[in-house]
Structures are given as structure tokens and as C-alpha cells.
Design brief:
The protein starts with 7 loop residues before the first helix and ends in a 53-residue tail after the last helix. The chain has 529 residues and is an alpha/beta fold. It is globular and about 75 Å long. It has helices at residues 8-11, 21-32, 72-82, 108-132, 141-149, 151-166, 175-182, 187-193, 203-207, 216-229, 275-281, 288-296, 335-338, 362-365, 368-381, 409-421, 440-455, 472-476, and strands at 14-17, 38-40, 52-55, 58-61, 86-90, 93-97, 100-103, 208-212, 233-235, 240-246, 249-257, 260-265, 268-271, 282-283, 299-309, 319-322, 331-334, 349-357, 390-403, 426-428. Helix 5 (141-149) packs antiparallel against helix 6 (151-166), helix 5 (141-149) packs across helix 7 and helix 11 packs antiparallel against helix 12. The protein has three domains: 8-51 and 215-296 and 406-464, FAD/NAD(P)-binding domain, CATH 3.50.50.60; 95-204 and 470-509, no CATH class; 299-403, Polyamine Oxidase, Chain A, domain 2 (Alpha-Beta Complex), CATH 3.90.660. The chain has a seven-stranded mixed sheet with strand order 7-6-16-17-18-15-19, sandwiched between helices. The protein contains 18 helices and 20 strands. The protein binds flavin-adenine dinucleotide (FAD). The site of flavin-adenine dinucleotide (FAD) has 36 residues, from helix 2 and helix 17.
Length: 529
């Protein structure tokens, strides 16, 4: 008689909440250790914020998702998963203002050439005027930027986009955001930097990136299949409704599935749902102060109007920033330029018009048909596509797209963290799971490390992932190609005091990968260390 095969999952099942990059990376890592996790996903598809939606054969990301990282094991995992399906793509992204394109980030010579001699002279005069008589106090974003760039440049390239992303006037945004993100930079230093040789040049992250042949969703669908082939399961349409605990131990979760409510027990739990939702779903509930802290953490939401255009070529960029204040659209993605396979018919183009909003506001609650009409009108208004050339469209609303770092978020997060860290067999991972402005790579890393805490008994502190790392993209910025931290969050209040916090950039001015917030000028980079 042979001994029964030991199956750790029978005794110690690992339950993962959420099939976004963090949850699926955790599941994939578990299968590498021979484990068979159960992944519970509320939506009908995997990928979370990095999913790819499809409409009539046209594929659309929720915002274009570039794959780039300096975490080598994450990059190796991407290649392992997709092989030749992970394309190496050139990047072009520009600013569109008054029917002209400007390099992104702005380069003074290019900007002056685009604006013409008169506007350029006015910009310089305006700059000098504000140098001679600056605002005596720099309390707001508007005052801070005007003092360094002049009013004209502020109005042209800072104001409209920043307000679209943040949803509040620059005159009420705190100056510290700008100071934190672009200290040391002004029109003068930007111009001077054009003549200074770069110290570091890492071209690949600035001008190229990886992208799956059929969008990021392809990555996550492939991971789902791999997990299932290795004996794990990924259950879609399975929202976790509550998380039952006895003291500091999680016993099981209640999941809605096919009209029934099912209890799923586990020995270990990894959650990538928003940490605010996590604490609200605990039964018995956590202390009132924890729930109160969860109530104070906020998010900025986002929607994409996906349009099918009956034209083979619209513009050559992967995406463009729309600065014209007369339109609400913030950024336009051209998915065909991310990968030709994003469109089923080469005579057509799939565009994603990005609108930053907050759940419940006018944009968020607008009917889909009206949003599609708005998108068509705005495309025509900025002169990119004629109204009649758009043949169809759909709308995707994205909850909790950006965790907001406001003046007191760190304080509230600390209260939640203290409580969650005391739960013996639950780890919270990912972007909203840690309320950290993580991109896919760091979201994945938190999932992978959570697994090692379980299977290898390691002691990784997931809250510190991505607090002491900077992106190559930032370093690359010293060459004048791109500044900023590669991430920008639409943040609505006073600045964080978190010294590690590089993510909440000030809308249009800084950052750059997601909200399309961008560093105004290519130029010298200042390290915040
Ligand atoms: C506009 C935009 C552009 C971006 N661009 C880039 C980019 O260029 N490059 C890049 O690397 N990253 C980019 N990102 C960031 C990237 O999308 C995130 O870092 C990544 O998706 C985070 O993964 P996650 O698994 O932590 O969270 P999520 O992607 O949010 O996944 C969480 C999952 O949990 C599920 N869930 C939530 N609650 C429950 C519940 N109760 N029960 C079951 N399931 C639940 C959700 O449905 C979701 O699928 C961008 C993000 C946005 C919004």
C-alpha cells in the first residue's frame, strides 16, 4: 500500500480575492510552488484595471497599459508567460494644443517653433514679468507654476490638463505638490538643460515599451489558463461579499456565485480588493476607528469612451494629451498604434477617449449614448476626426482607478494597516489593496512576495514595495526625454507628508504613465532622496 499523496491544498487552501495583476501573479507564483489556489473575481473577466475590453472585435485597454519595469523577475515572468506575443513597441506621445502637436514632455525649442515667434516672445515677456514681480506667497499650484514659468505658459500647458485630471481648479490645489515634484525646474532651467549633456541615458524605457499583441488582457488571460492547467481555479462573476473571522483569523469568505451564496474556507487569504472594501466586509467588523479611517480614504474614477473610426490612419501617436480647455477629454489612445492586432480591420481605427471623473458626477452619470456623442463632438472640435467618421462606440466606467493621496491619507492608512497586519492569515496586496500608486509590475511583485511569505515562510513587508524604488523612466529623464516619477494621481487636497511618496503628482505637470500627467518640460531631473 502506498501513502496517500500529500496535497497541501486539501489542508491549507489559499484563497485569493481579485484576478487583477496582483491576484493572478500570486496565483501563478503559488502554482510554481506546486499549489492549487482558488481565485475569486467579481467581474466576468480577468485583468482588473489592466484588463482589455472588446467591442465588435476592437480591443481597448482602460487607458493604454505599457509594460515596463526595473524588477527583473517581473519582466522575466512577462516573457515566460507571453513569449513572442509580448511585442516591443515604439512610443510616441505628444501634447495637442490648439490644433498643434508639441513634443511630450515639452522641449523649449520644439514648443517655441510650434507656437511661432509672436507667442514665444509673449511667453518670454510673461516669464520675465513674473520673475520681476512674482506672487509674494506661493500657496497654490497656480501661483507656484506662474512664478516659475510665467502666466502664459501656465495657461497654455498647465492649467487645463491639471484641472481635467484633478477635477478642481489650480487655484485651489496646494503649491506643495508642484514644489515636491518639480523643484529646481523653471523655464530658465528647462532652456539651459537643452544644452547640458545628459548624465544617464536609458533609452528603452522612454522610447519603447513592451505590449502584448492583443493588449494587457492577453497577459492575464494567459496567466488564468496557466493557473487552471496547473490545477488552480479562477472563478469569474464571483464577488466576495463578506469575510468571516474569528478574532484575528480568517475562516472563510462568502461569495455570490450563480445566484447562490457559497462559503469558501481557506487556511491563507490574499486579497487584492481595495483595502477600504476589505475592512468593510469583515464580520465581525473591525473597531469603529478602522471603519472610519476606511471612510476617509478616497479614489478618483475614470471612464473611457471607445470609438470605432472609419479611417485607416488618424494620428501616429500611441496616445496624445489634449490640452484644449474647451473639451473635457484628457487623453486619447490610438490602440492600433499600440499593436496592429487591436483592430480587426486595418481600414479602421479604435480610439479610447479618457475622461477623468468621480463616481456620481456629471460625466460618470451621463448616459452612454450621450458620452459617445460627446466623444464624437470633441474629436471633431479638436480637429482630429470628423463626427461622421465615427461609426460606433461603447463606454467603460472604471471604479477606483486612482487611490488618492490627500493631506491625511497616510494617517488613515496607518490605522487600517495596523489592524490588517494583525490578521494572522490574510495579506492585502496590489494597488488598491495597499492604497499605493502601483503599476502592474509592483502590483504583481506584492502578490509574488505574499506567496513567498506563505510557502517559504519569508517575511516580506508588502507595504514597503515600491516605496524605495525609482523607475528607470525617471533616470532616463536626465537626458531630457522625460521627467517625473512615471505616475501621477489626480489628487485633490494638500500634499502628503510621506517622504517616500512619489506617486501623487500634480496632474499635467508631472509624473506621466497613467493619468497622462506629464512633466511639462524635458529637462534636468531632481532626485527626491
Ligand atoms: C488609466 C490607467 C492607466 C494605467 N496604465 C498603466 C501602464 O501603462 N502600465 C502599468 O504597468 N500599469 C498601469 N496602470 C496600473 C495598473 O492598471 C494597476 O497597477 C494594476 O491593474 C493593479 O493590479 P491589482 O491586481 O492590484 O488591482 P486591480 O487591477 O484593481 O485588480 C483587482 C481585482 O479585484 C477584483 N475585486 C475587487 N473587489 C472584489 C470582490 N469583492 N470580490 C472579488 N473580486 C474583487 C476587481 O474586479 C479586480 O479585477 C494603469 C491604471 C490606470 C487606471
Amino acid at each position: 500500500m502506498t501513502d496517500p499523496v500529500h496535497n497541501p491544498d486539501a489542508e491549507h487552501p489559499v484563497v485569493i480575492i481579485g484576478a487583477g495583476p496582483a491576484g493572478l501573479a500570486a496565483a501563478y507564483e503559488l502554482t510554481r510552488h506546486g499549489r492549487r489556489p482558488v481565485v475569486l473575481e467579481a467581474l466576468p473577466r480577468v485583468g482588473g484595471l489592466a484588463r482589455t475590453e472588446e467591442y465588435k472585435g476592437f480591443a481597448f485597454d482602460l487607458g493604454g497599459h505599457r509594460f515596463f519595469t526595473k524588477v527583473s523577475e517581473v519582466e522575466e515572468t512577462w516573457h515566460e508567460i507571453l513569449g513572442a506575443d509580448l511585442l516591443h513597441r515604439p512610443r510616441l506621445s505628444r501634447i495637442y494644443y490648439r490644433r498643434r502637436f508639441f513634443d511630450y514632455p515639452l522641449k523649449p525649442l520644439n514648443a517655441f517653433a510650434g507656437l511661432g515667434p509672436l507667442q514665444s516672445a509673449l511667453i518670454i515677456l510673461s516669464y520675465l514679468r513674473w520673475k520681476i514681480r512674482p506672487y509674494p506667497q506661493e500657496e497654490t499650484f497656480e501661483e507656484w507654476v506662474t512664478n516659475r514659468f510665467g502666466r502664459r505658459l501656465f495657461l497654455m500647458f498647465f492649467k487645463a490638463y491639471t484641472e481635467k485630471v484633478w477635477g478642481i481648479p489650480c487655484s485651489t490645489l496646494r503649491a506643495e505638490w508642484a514644489a515636491q515634484r518639480i523643484k529646481g525646474l523653471s523655464l530658465k532651467t528647462a532652456v539651459l538643460s537643452m544644452f547640458v549633456k545628459p548624465k544617464t541615458r536609458i533609452k528603452s524605457l522612454v522610447t519603447e515599451f513592451y505590449y502584448p499583441r492583443r493588449g494587457p488582457g492577453m497577459m492575464w488571460n494567459t496567466v488564468m489558463r496557466a493557473v487552471e492547467q496547473r490545477g488552480g481555479s479562477v472563478r469569474l462573476n464571483s464577488p466576495v461579499l463578506s469575510i468571516a473571522r474569528t478574532g484575528s483569523r480568517i475562516d472563510h469568505v462568502l461569495v455570490a456565485s450563480n445566484g447562490r451564496i457559497e462559503s469558501i474556507a481557506g487556511a491563507q487569504f490574499i486579497s487584492s480588493m481595495a483595502v477600504t472594501d476589505l475592512v468593510r466586509k469583515l464580520t465581525p467588523p473591525p473597531p469603529a476607528e478602522v471603519l472610519d479611517a476606511a471612510g476617509q480614504l478616497t479614489y478618483r474614477d475614470f471612464l473611457t469612451v471607445c470609438l470605432i473610426v472609419n479611417r485607416a490612419h488618424v494620428f501616429p501617436d500611441n496616445w496624445i494629451y489634449i490640452h484644449d480647455p474647451e473639451v473635457k477629454v484628457g487623453r486619447i489612445q490610438n490602440f492600433k498604434n499600440w499593436s496592429p492586432e487591436m483592430v480587426p480591420d486595418p481600414t479602421k481605427t479604435g480610439l479610447g477617449l479618457e475622461y477623468f471623473c468621480t463616481e456620481g458626477d456629471d460625466l460618470w452619470t451621463m448616459a452612454d449614448a450621450d458620452l459617445i456623442e460627446l466623444g464624437k463632438r470633441e474629436l471633431e472640435r479638436v480637429g482630429l476626426v470628423r463626427h461622421g467618421d465615427v461609426e460606433d462606440g461603447c463606454v467603460v466606467r472604471v471604479h477606483k482607478a486612482y487611490p488618492v493621496y490627500d493631506a491625511r491619507y497616510r494617517e488613515h492608512l496607518d490605522v487600517i494597516r495596523k489592524f490588517v497586519d494583525r490578521l494572522d492569515n490574510l495579506q492585502t496586496v496590489g494597488r488598491n489593496g495597499l492604497h499605493r500608486y502601483n503599476n502592474q509590475d509592483h502590483a504583481m511583485l506584492t502578490g509574488m512576495l505574499a506567496v513567498r511569505n506563505i510557502t517559504l515562510n519569508q517575511r516580506h513587508d508588502l507595504w514597503t514595495v515600491n516605496t524605495d524604488q525609482e523607475y528607470l523612466e525617471e533616470i532616463a529623464s536626465t537626458n531630457g526625454a522625460e521627467r517625473g516619477n512615471g505616475r501621477a494621481t489626480p489628487t485633490q487636497a494638500a500634499p502628503s507628508r510621506d517622504p517616500d511618496d512619489r506617486s501623487p503628482a500634480s496632474g499635467a505637470l508631472l509624473g506621466g504613465r497613467e493619468a497622462g500627467a506629464f512633466s511639462m518640460f524635458a529637462g534636468r531631473r531632481t532626485r527626491r532622496r
